[in-house]
Structure formats: C-alpha cells, structure tokens
Design goal:
mainly beta, 9-stranded mixed beta sheet, 3 helices, globular
C-alpha cells in the first residue's frame, strides 16, 4: 500500500512538471562524418531538444524518409517498430541530408495547456488571435505535422554545393553547409513555408549546454552565432487557423540537425 501511494505521488509530481506532450522532433545519426562506405544508423527523437526519447519506425506515421546526396534521393531502409529507425551506407564522398516527414496527427488540449504550449513555442500571434476571438479559455483542436532534416558529410569531401531545398512544407534552409570545414559558426539561412518566406517565426538552436533564439525577418531570414562546436538542433514552428471544421489550428514543425 505504501509503495502504491509513493508511486501515485511520483506520477502526480511528474504530471505537474510535464503538463504537455513533448513536441520537438528531430534526427540523430550514429556518425555525422562517416568514412565512405561506412554504415550509419538513423535515430528519430522526440522530446525537448536536445534531450529526447527514441521514436521507433512506424509505417502509419511516416510520409517521407530519404537520403539526399550525390546519388539523388533514395529511401532510407529500416525495420518496422525498431530503433534505430533506419540505416544506410554513406557511399558517396560529399554532403548529404537525411529527410523525414510525418503524416498529419491530431491532438486536443485544454485551454491552459494550449496556452502554455503557445508560450513555449513563441506563438504570440496565435495567443493574440485567441484573445481577440474570446476563445482563450476554450480547448484547442490541433492538427500537426513534423519535418526533420539531418546533415552529414563523408570524410574527404571537397567543395560545397549549394544547400538543396528538400521540399518540406516547413523547412529550415541554411545558406551554406554548416558541416563544412570552413564554417565559422555564424549560422544564417531561411525558413520557408510552402516554398515562400516564413516571417516572424521563432528559431531556436540548442546543444547539450547552450540554447539560442532569434526570429525570422520579413524575408524569412535568420542568423544565429553558434557558441561552440557541437551537435546542434535547430527548430521552428508555424501555426495558423484551420479551414477544416474538424480542427481549429494547423501547425508545422521543422528541425535541422548537424555537427560542426
């Protein structure tokens, strides 16, 4: 009985500390700079970047899972329900992008949790819309889609081609490859939504010891001076009112991971 009471108390405490589901979603690799031909494992992570829990490969959730390299765009194979979620061999010398996107999913949050969610993600415009419409105290039905990219560079790679646009609905596109040897830590780039500039979005860059933030300008551009060499998770979120009567809001989540 005593053990049960202690367990219940722990659950209650955790419930107050972590009132929201973990929203950040990103990719990690077993090796960000593999030898040509070396095997690389792909791990999907969910949580509060850069700390997260593993996400297994789930066919019903997966919309895209590819490696973009000099060979073009090729599917990343893997075993259903397993972690790591995928694997490949870095066959070509040069940079590459592992790209993943999910099918839309749905969640309903009560007013307090949704408001906390908006504050955490810097979605001030949505809070203002809810206040103006008198729905700040109403629960919110949200449809969300996740997009993740991770950069790698095989050893021996030479000059850098322009960073390609993968084509995600929401995408973080750096101006230059931050995995290149001459990268100076000044991360600049664009956030695109459906191929156009996405202004006013909060962009966060996190490593194990540092978290930095900025917002995109009117051209969807951002600049973040990264503090140190590390694995960095860069992320952003865009939310808008939905025209679908089955939910109130549509959100798109994008992440970009690399080591420099």
């Amino acid at each position: 009985m005593k053990t049960q009471l202690i367990a219940a108390a722990v659950v209650a405490i955790l419930g107050t500390i972590c009132p929201l589901p973990a929203h950040d979603f990103w990719i990690e690799l077993s090796d960000y700079s593999p030898d040509p031909g070396a095997p690389v494992k792909v791990f999907l992570k969910s949580g509060h970047a850069p700390m997260g829990e593993p996400v297994p490969r789930l066919a019903k959730a997966l919309a895209q899972f590819v490696l973009v390299s000099a060979d073009g765009s090729n599917p990343v194979p893997g075993l259903a329900g397993k972690d790591p979620a995928g694997y490949f061999r870095a066959e070509k010398i040069g940079p590459g992008i592992v790209a993943y996107s999910t099918q839309p999913r749905f969640i309903t949050l009560d007013a307090k949790k949704f408001d906390t969610h908006l504050v955490q993600e810097g979605l001030d415009a949505i809070r203002e819309l809810r206040a103006k419409s008198g729905t700040s105290q109403a629960p919110a039905r949200e449809a969300y889609t996740k997009y993740a990219k991770c950069l790698l560079r095989t050893k021996g790679a030479g000059e850098n081609p322009p960073m390609p646009v993968v084509g995600h609905s929401l995408e973080i596109v750096p101006d230059a490859d931050p995995t290149a040897a001459d990268f100076d830590g000044k991360l600049t780039g664009r956030v695109l939504f459906q191929g156009a500039a996405a202004p006013g979005l909060l962009v966060s860059a996190s490593s194990q010891s540092t978290s930095l933030q900025t917002r995109t300008d009117q051209d969807g551009r951002f600049q973040i001076p990264l503090a140190r060499s590390a694995v960095w998770v860069v992320k952003t979120v865009r939310m808008a009112e939905s025209t679908d009567p089955t939910h109130d809001w549509e959100s798109h989540w994008a992440s970009l991971v690399f080591h420099f």
